[in-house]
Amino acid sequence: MAIQVEQFMCLSDNFGVLLRDPATGDVALVDAPEEAPILAAVKRTGWTPKLILTTHHHVDHVEANLALKQRFGLRIVGPEAEKDKIPGIDETVGQGSTVPFGSETVEVISTPGHTAGHVSYHFPGSKVVFTADTLFALGCGRLFEAPPEVMYDSLKKLAALPADTTVYCGHEYTLSNARFALTIDPDNAALQARARKIEALRADDKPTLPTTIGEELATNPFLRWADPAIRRNLGMENATDAEVFAEIRKRKDNF
Fold it and tell me: Is 122 a catalytic residue?
């Protein structure tokens, strides 16, 4: 039985995520952006969390850690490389680590780039991955603490997951990402169709997530560094994949 996922908004554009393993009833959070919406989700679902899977140290992902720990006595897991910056952390993880959750074994994927120690959490049994601020729908995170080639390597790891893997991200940035993607890959029919769908969803104030690895491979320019059309549009037919990625990220920064 796949994990159940309750997704909701926190702060201005963060996604909060409650997870429940239906086989055992175990409940976890992925990050803790804001206490009040999380408590509302707990009340709405009846799911009481005993674990926070922290992806990285930015305050909009850990703001509610201590308040929730005090309220629920939960355990906080997070990246070893950022342990000194994560409030209330109990256990550290890195590439290749596993975290037991209910009937599943969660695989930790090291995905630095946005921050130097960012991790993603993969639930292979449920075919779900939580990528926070590394991979977004039609985008990727800004490079605050690492050079482009580091993020490129992280995205390669995520792109290698099965195409039917469901992806939950940290922010509702998809509309802006879609508009940028069309400047890089304007003739991509799948991207055009997806952009229209995203415009409609946001006009109705509906979330654009989750997505899938397969959908991102077909439409997200940050995973399409090898695509001949994108390379032609950038004038980078002979560049390395990492160089193409770096140019796309630079253009997005200035978009």
Answer: no
Catalytic residue of the set 57, 58, 118, 122:
58
Give per-residue pLDDT as tens, 124-174: 999 999 999 999 999 999 999 999 999 999 999 999 999 999 999 999 999
pTM, two decimal places: 0.97
Catalytic annotation on 171? yes
> Does residue 227 carry a catalytic annotation?
no
39-58 mean pLDDT: 98
> Is-catalytic flag, 133?
yes
CA distance 210 to 50: 24
Q: Look up 84 and say whether it is catalytic.
A: no
